[in-house]
């Protein structure tokens, strides 16, 4: 098994147009949740979201290209471009043939679909735009990124709700580690702020109307977000040979299914995914210093995830620093695991532990250290990032600080 490292990071979210801005927001406690601006809110009960601010597609894409891109694919491409530039990797024709691309989405082209339906049912038109299918299909982000960079190896998209990006990253990691690919561009992207989607989430009664405050006694739910993040993964040997900057080392990946309830999470199911990730990475429980929690801000998720940490880590759970960065950037479904891996790398590379902001009163059922409101500067050698999705699909990444 080959060692795999992260040499490129790219992101766009409610708290940053790029990775530097994202990390600065985490360190300074600057959140991105606010009033919805991209759609009318007069028919909405929930009027807040974590939208990507001042995103101008025309600044990134020519009009002919833009006609083929739903917003989620736009975000994926912007993130992938930053990650590739950051990696400094020269993609030769030979390397391209062994380059994987896995970029997932939970909602896919919701904006494109909704606009098509609006034209049909509200405007009474008999046709939708000709590129509706290639824009809304779930693999469009993967296909667009693979075409732009010449990634001609294994390429596909994953859709597993909130675990999508984590599954995508984990699968790409295992491909590079096993030799099925020499490098991989992996991640996730979602653009979820549409009238129909917000109304659908309102119907579930799990969305907060003020803000996201994970693990707090007075939490009232999640906040929808949008964004994208991508990473370049390659072997340690290749990265060192070309003198690349190494942000972190991929250590392990675990994935399980609760096979229980469609909406209610299981501490045991999530715990098995964490245990698998640690075993896959050859890590002891005591080596983990930081946990980037799934931490949606719903009553059921936060309590269950806290139970999961007790179940897996035992006495060491009290020593963990745990935070939910969804308190900053909302819940971007298929992008969440990727956006949150950026925060996990920040903890390992720079020793900056992102806080859980908006924190008020601790919930007695959530009795661990959630790093309330202020970032900490603490060296961390190993960390995990949890993604526990609707449908009982769990995915966990384990990463290590790169020390040569």
Number of extended strands: 14
Mean pLDDT: 97
Distance linking N and C termini: 17 Å
In the CATH hierarchy, the third-tier topology of the largest domain is known as: Peroxisomal Thiolase, Chain A, domain 1
Uncertain runs with pLDDT below 50, 5 residues or more? none
According to CATH, the homologous superfamily of the largest domain is: Thiolase/Chalcone synthase
Strand and helix order: EHEEHHHEHHHEHEHEHEHEHEHHEEEE
Oligomer: single chain
Count of domains: 2
Structural class: alpha/beta
What fraction of the residues are assigned to beta strands by DSSP?
15-25%
The biggest beta sheet, please?
Answer: 10 strands, mixed
Roughly what percent helix?
A: 25-40%
The number of helical segments is 14
Shape: globular
CATH architecture of the largest domain: 3-Layer(aba) Sandwich
CATH C-level category of the largest domain: Alpha Beta
- Using the CA coordinates, give the radius of gyration: 20 Å
Model description:
There is one protein chain. By secondary structure, the protein is α/β, with parallel strands linked by helices. Helix content is about 35%, strand content about 20%. It has helices at about 20-30, 65, 70-85, 95, 110-120, 130-135, 140-150, 165-180, 195-205, 235-240, 265-280, 300-315, 325-330, 335-350; strands at about 5-10, 35, 50, 100-105, 155, 185-190, 225-235, 250-255, 290, 320-325, 350-355, 375, 380-390, 395-400. Strand 13 (about 380-390) and strand 14 form a beta hairpin. The longest helix has 17 residues, at about 70-85. It is globular and about 60 Å long.
């Amino acid at each position: 098994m080959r060692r795999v490292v992260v040499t490129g990071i790219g992101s766009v979210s409610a708290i940053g147009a790029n990775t530097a801005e994202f990390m600065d927001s985490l360190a300074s406690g600057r959140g991105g949740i606010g009033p919805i601006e991209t759609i009318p809110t007069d028919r909405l009960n929930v009027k807040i979201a974590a939208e990507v601010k001042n995103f101008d597609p025309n600044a990134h894409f020519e009009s002919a290209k833009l006609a083929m891109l739903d917003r989620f694919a736009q975000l994926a491409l912007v993130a992938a471009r930053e990650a590739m530039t950051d990696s400094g990797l020269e993609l030769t024709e030979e390397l391209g043939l062994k380059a994987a691309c896995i970029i997932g989405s939970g909602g896919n082209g919701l904006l494109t679909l909704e606009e098509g339906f609006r034209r049909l049912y509200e405007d009474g038109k008999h046709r939708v735009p000709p590129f509706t299918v290639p824009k809304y299909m779930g693999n469009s982000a993967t296909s667009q990124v693979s075409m732009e960079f010449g990634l001609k190896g294994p390429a596909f998209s994953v859709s597993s709700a909130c675990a999508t990006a984590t599954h995508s990253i984990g699968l790409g990691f295992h491909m590079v580690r096993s030799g099925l690919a020499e490098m991989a561009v992996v991640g996730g992207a979602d653009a979820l702020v549409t009238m129909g989607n917000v109304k659908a989430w309102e119907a579930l009664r799990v969305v907060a109307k003020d803000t996201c405050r994970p693990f707090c006694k007075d939490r009232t739910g999640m906040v929808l977000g949008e964004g994208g993040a991508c990473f370049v993964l390659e072997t340690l040997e290749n990265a060192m040979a070309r003198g690349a900057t190494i942000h972190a080392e991929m250590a392990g990946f675990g994935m399980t299914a609760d096979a229980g309830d469609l909406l209610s999470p299981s501490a045991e199911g999530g715990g098995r995914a964490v245990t698998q990730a640690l075993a896959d990475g050859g890590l002891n429980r005591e080596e983990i210093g930081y946990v980037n929690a799934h931490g949606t801000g719903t009553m059921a998720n936060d309590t269950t995830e806290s139970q999961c940490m007790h179940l897996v880590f035992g006495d060491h759970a009290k020593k963990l620093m745990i935070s939910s960065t969804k308190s900053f950037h909302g819940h971007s479904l298929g992008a969440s695991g990727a956006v949150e891996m950026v925060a996990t790398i920040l903890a390992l590379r720079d020793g900056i532990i992102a806080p859980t902001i908006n924190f008020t009163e601790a919930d007695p059922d959530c009795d661990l250290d959630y790093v309330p409101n202020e970032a900490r500067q603490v060296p961390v050698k190993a960390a995990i990032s949890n993604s526990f999705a609707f449908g009982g699909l769990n995915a966990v990444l384990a990463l290590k600080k790169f020390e040569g």
